[in-house]
Amino acid sequence: MRIDVMNGPNLNLLGTREPAVYGGQTLATLEARLSERAAALGATLVFTQSNHEGALIDAVHAAAAVGSAGVVINPGGLTHSSVSLRDALVGTALPFVEVHISNVYAREPFRHVSLLRDVAIGCIVGLGVDGYLYALDALAQRSARGAAPR
After folding, report:
1. DSSP string over 121-149
2. In this predicted model, what pLDDT tens digit does every residue of 98-110 receive, in sequence order?
3. Which residue of the set 52, 61, 100, 112 is catalytic?
4. Counting CB atoms within 10 angstroms of each CB, which of 35, 58, 71, 145 has the fewest?
């Protein structure tokens, strides 16, 4: 079972960018934690982080082309602005869980708008990097049950 983990703009700065908001864990450490959990679940993870919208869209297309079981995605600021990323996720019918490290609903009003949440199978916000682990668990369980795409 393959599950893709995608991170959008500025998430490469985890550990140094606003640690009071995003914590002190680096993206590399997060990926190592996820890989450990994936091994226990019998899953293979493919990681993508890009500061470029088109690269994430290409990653969604590639994941669908090889039959990924789903996507854990933190689109970063693209959450609020990328119709194209939404269209890629909807167009490929990949099940995905939207993850945000901070509680976006306790922050600036523009962060309250997600162009993805209504087409995601679930959203996890404000639980720190553990939200990625919960999303991974949810997708693995869904795949194990043989659930159909959204």
Report:
1. SEEEESSTTHHHHHHHHHHHHHHHTTPPP
2. 999 989 887 878 7
3. 100
4. 145
Rounded to 5 degrees, φ, ψ at 36 are -60, -45
Long-range contacts of 11-19 (CB under 8 A, 24+ apart): 11/49, 11/74, 11/76, 12/49, 12/51, 14/101, 14/129
DSSP state of 80: G
Whether 22 is a known active-site residue: answer: yes
**Structure tokens that stand for 80 in this block:** 């609020």
| Mean pLDDT, rounded, of the chain | 93
Q: Are strands 96-100 and 122-125 parallel, antiparallel or unpaired?
A: parallel
d(CA 150, CA 133): 20
Catalytic residue check, 100: yes
- The pTM of the full predicted model, rounded to 2 decimals, is 0.93
